[in-house]
Amino acid sequence: MRKILLIIVFFLGINISFGQKPNILCTQVNEDGGVTIFYQTVSNDFIQYSFSFFNSSLGDYELVGSESDINVSSFTDNSRDANSEQIKYRLSSNPTNISYGNTIFLSLIYNGGSSFRLDWTSPHPSPSENLTGTENQKYIIYRRFANQSNSWQKIDSTTLLTFTDNFPPPCSDTVYYKVELPNAYGCSSVSNLRSHFVEDIEIPSEAIVLCSGVDLDSQKLVLSWTPSPSIDTKGYVICEGSPCVGIDTIMGANQNSFICDTCNVEYVFSLAVMAFDSCYNTSIKSNNHKNIVLSYTREACSNVINLSWTKYVGDPLNVIVYNLYLSQNGGAYNLHQTFTASDSTFTFNANPVIENHSFYIEAILSNTKTSKSNIITTTQGLPAKVDYAYIRKASVSDDNTKIELDFFVDASLVVRGYDLYRSVDNIDFFIIKTIDYSGNNSFSYTDTPPTSANKATYYYKLMVPDECNLLYTSSNTFSTIRLLVDASDAEMNVLTWNELKGWESVESYDIYRIDENSPFGLQLSNVLSAEMGFEDNTSSMVTASDKIEYYIIANEGGSYPDGKKSESRSSTAEVIKESLIFVPNSFSPTNIVNNEFKPVCSFIRTGTYVLRIMSRWGEVMFESKDLNKGWDGYFKGKICSAQSYIYIIEFVNSEGKKIKKSGIVNLIN
């Protein structure tokens, strides 16, 4: 009740203070540029409310509208665009009762980054005259972002007609502003809206690489750097090569190192780092740094070990010296010799009494950091042998004539070559090829066996000699997959195959079928490794050619010696299905069903089918080489009369014989 009394007193106060003058309380610019004027109504001496705007070209006010209802307290002017200029209004209820008011016109100046200066005009009729109730009121500045919220945020208030706004830049957004001037009677003058697209395009400061080297314990490549000083840094991208291709992402502004789990430390990697911020703006790439790779050669059965290493590269760093560290028989590493920055080779004479020698190179850099190479170990007692030799796959070509073999061999030991053996029974093996040593851990060879791979299962193993060609390291024995298919059942092809040997385990087998509808192979199923069998129901393949081929892909399970999962393809098995054909004896073109004469064909040799319809006088009325297209009973655009017609069907069957079938079909209307 008290609140209601206060409101009544409030409005009585308005009437008392205003008298009969239709005072403009506030002006509000709408989004379309129209203006709504709120004013105090009068109670007497009323003719009509007349609204005029100041026309600067005429130097006088021009009428824009009127209101004849004395109790209406607002008026919207859509004749002017208050988004482009300030509009001055005059309101009168009779020739002597006049009030004035202006719109607030807001302009926006972009200062760069995410800084804007707002300038606006006063809604007051003149510097000496305020709108009713705006005494001691401040302008309120509002801001909102299109992608963040639909609500306006009050950011400041001022008695001035200008304001500079600074805010953290969003990644990509549009900022909107408006200015309001409230009065004591609950009515606010509202400016036009101003907007500007803003985005964060400032890149973080770059990170500085300190060094790239191998951790001795884990034998993994480690890149270290000083973090970017930019406040908005969110993480780092590690890239390799030139052009630098990203290989990993590290989250966290204070991260300062990266362990490359996939980098083989026996190879040189050119690594760099780039910082990125919350908007994924990326800094300038640091300089690429190349790690040191230590390698060695040794004459067969000799105590002379020839060491060589790649130079450390990392501008603007310089190498002060290279240190060679030596460990004997698994003992602690000790500094053996120091070299200049220009040195990259050393001949080491091994003590024949010492069995094992291990080495690494350490570079002392100009920034006092150190970069270590990979560790190499050589055994002097027995001739050195490779640590591993694997056959990774034995895939049969689609025509069953070739077998592609992939190998993964320890290439740190230089040997005369790799001897490849083949067997058809996994008992008696015969050498078929000596593959040249290339220095690469991974390599391939394609074998052409004497008998097609769909006629026999082949077994392979690789024998790698030691450095003296005395002892051999044998790889795993790897078998091909021979796929067999039993097509004795007219509707079911039964596939069987031998178990693949060579991997730790087989995860599964993917079954593929090749026919005229799937010339590149359609995957039918995926079966577990223990099943080694599959049944393919071909009863629905009514339009397929008579030739169907199958192959399977074995998927490796268990652990992968080279860290990569392998696949191995079986031989291709072929089935020639018996050609079947069913010919209806009648049809009716005018019916909803059975309105087309079309033989139903199964396993017809592709490209050999021809259907002809002839009249009793030998005239060809229809011809088609498409299995899916039949005769609709029309000839030259007209439906044929109800009578008997001759059909002739020609095709090549599954045995390669040309078949010609003819008969009578009855057309019924």
Description:
The N terminus is likely disordered. The protein has five domains: 185 residues, Immunoglobulin-like (Sandwich), CATH 2.60.40; 83 residues, Immunoglobulins (Immunoglobulin-like, Sandwich), CATH 2.60.40.10; 86 residues, Immunoglobulins (Immunoglobulin-like, Sandwich); 193 residues, Sandwich (Immunoglobulin-like), CATH 2.60.40; 88 residues, Immunoglobulin-like. The chain is built from one helix and 55 strands. A hairpin with a 5-residue loop joins strand 54 and strand 55. Strands 10, 11, 13, 14 and 15 form a five-stranded antiparallel beta sheet that branches. It is flat, with a radius of gyration of 45 Å. It is an all-beta fold and 669 residues long.
Give a quick summary of the entry.
With 669 residues, the protein is mostly beta strands.
How would you sum up the major sheet? 5 strands, antiparallel
The CATH architecture of the largest domain would be: Sandwich
Q: What kind of oligomer do you see?
A: single chain
CATH first level of the largest domain: Mainly Beta
Number of domains: 5
Portion in beta strands: over 45%
Q: Unreliable stretches, pLDDT < 50, 5 or more residues?
A: 1-19
| Helix-and-strand structural type | mainly beta
Give the termini separation: 92 Å
Counted by DSSP, the helix tally is: 1
